[in-house]
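Design job #97: recover the sequence.
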């Protein structure tokens, strides 16, 4: 249903309920409904999984992948066209993607302070090779190379509804 919703334009964006709680903290038996450690460690894994399972298996197009992981969120939060598009005047944010790179997701490869992958053991095809933020390489060949603290807050602007596609095939 996820893939069908993306194809039909019912789903505008895909995001993460990422949390950096360790596995031990998440499994702590003293938690109650009032202090449950919600969320999942998946921020770095979900885009490659979306690509692998969606684009790689022909469920969505490459353009739909880019829309639901980048462009539409920039529009919804009023950051488009500064973010979410590659064009003159935008922030020069982009990801160079290797659609053939294959990996098995492993806990030890996670950058998050959670130090585990909720999807460890899963075979995934298609990963970011290089990430460029505001024209600066911040991730390259499996290494974070951007300077800690170099991110910037970007205030949102007027909501822009992503272009609707027909809901009926």
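Job complete. Output follows.
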């Amino acid at each position: 249903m996820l893939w069908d919703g993306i194809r039909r334009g019912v789903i505008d964006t895909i995001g993460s309920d990422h949390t950096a709680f360790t596995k031990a903290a998440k499994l702590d038996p003293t938690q109650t409904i009032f202090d449950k450690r919600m969320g999942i460690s998946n921020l770095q894994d979900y885009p490659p999984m979306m690509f692998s399972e969606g684009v790689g298996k022909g469920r969505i197009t490459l353009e739909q992948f880019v829309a639901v992981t980048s462009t539409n969120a920039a529009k919804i939060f009023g950051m488009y066209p500064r973010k979410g598009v590659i064009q003159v005047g935008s922030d020069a944010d982009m990801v160079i993607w290797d659609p053939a790179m294959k990996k098995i997701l492993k806990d030890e490869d996670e950058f998050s302070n959670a130090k585990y992958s909720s999807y460890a053991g899963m075979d995934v095809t298609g990963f970011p090779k290089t990430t460029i933020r505001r024209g600066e390489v911040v991730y390259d060949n499996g290494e974070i190379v951007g300077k800690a603290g170099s991110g910037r807050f970007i205030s949102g602007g007027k909501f822009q509804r992503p272009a609707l596609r027909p809901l009926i095939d």
